[in-house]
Amino acid sequence: MAGPAGVGAALCSERFGSQAARGCSAAADGSLRWETWGRRWWGGAGAAPGPAAPPLPRLLTVFLPQGFPDSVSPDYLPYQLWDSVQAFASSLSGSLATHAVLLGIGVGNADASVSAATATWLLKDSTGMLGRIVFAWWKGSKLDCNAKQWRLFADILNDIAMFLEIMAPILPICFTVTICISNLAKCLVGVAGGATRAALTMHQARRNNMADVSAKDGSQETLVNLAGLLVSLLMLPLVSDCPSFSLGCFFLLTALHVYANYRAVRALVIETLNEGRLWLVLKHFLQRGEVLDPTSANQMEPLWTGFWPSLSLSLGVPLHRLVSSVVELQQLAEGHQEPYLLRWDQSQNHVQVVLSEEAGPETVLRAATHGLVLGALREDGPLPRELGELGNQVRADPNKESWVIVKETHRVLDKLFPAFLKGLQDAGWETEKHQLEVDEWRATWLLSPEKKVL
């Protein structure tokens, strides 16, 4: 009987994720001979293959999402490395703060009252719970829009809370008030940090694997906290008898914590547009005629001043807030058939937008672009010719009717926005979704007679 055909020729291959493939050939006795990972081997008849080294070390697969690196965003690894550094520093700082709080409550003091310590602890917890509820109601809808900024804010607020805990025993008269304020801050950190972590997990998961990315992030944090716990066991006996040394260690760890957080947040490259990134990209487009790619825009995005833009933009406001007469409604709807109405208050530099029931992500993106273009008219800097003329009119006559300027910018955007939208898509931005803050109000209105849609 003849031997298997094609002895030595590659019959099949396999690979794990994005790793290099290894081939398989037929041996003389008809068995399959697989190449070892990283090098080829050819054994004689009956020779056993060497052990196949896994594409990733076994230990890494415990802490990294399945399919890494293809299953996550490109910024996953640098972000997680810096996030681990900040978590380690925070764990050590937290140990120092916990040690101070326990001393302040009376642990180790024979004269301390158990009931007084219990009352203080319950008051601290109840203050934090109420703060958590109020903060989630007040800022919950804004956390998705500025996830990077709120992430950094949460970690710095956490440092402030731990500093208050360390200082609390030094001021025994204000001890209860101090730790209540500290716990309130920590509860705000819990809301902001948890919500932004979920938003960033959604950004990093690229194969509908949010649960896996989140679970592995938890495993990484647990490992870091365990390492921090072991170091804390060695550190606390050294600093417990020297408050000044303890405070010095805390400031050193806090500096490391803030720096690592900044590097982690700066490493993120989010491809969806919020107001800050849209303003950067639009301003560059108006001045130079080209669209910034996500990496460049994210590097330029402000992490602090982005909280308070000079232009106030409100999307999805109720119709009754914009108009109070038929004439005002006709003015806002005249000259265009876009499914949104826009009013610009020049004195307050405030743009309000009413969205139609049919408004989708592209409409919201155009409305936001429209509002930011109006803001650009009041700033110095090069603009396309037609916008430059409008800008000169606005600066020359600040009392000019705003609805007239809005009508003219509708006409300019009919030509400008399609090119801008195509530039966004070509540069790698996701335009089918956004992270703009949009309220839930929607409205319907009659189109102007000359712009009826058949």
UniProtKB/TrEMBL annotation:
Boundaries of every Protein root UVB sensitive/RUS domain copy: 57-288
InterPro entries: RUS_fam (IPR006968), UVB_sens_C (IPR055412), UVB_sens_RUS_dom (IPR054549)
Protein name: RUS family member 1
Subcellular location: Membrane
Organism of origin: Cnephaeus nilssonii (Northern bat)
Domain Root UVB sensitive protein C-terminal: 290-445
GO cellular component: membrane
Main location: membrane
Family: Belongs to the RUS1 family.
Keywords attached to this entry: Membrane, Transmembrane, Transmembrane helix
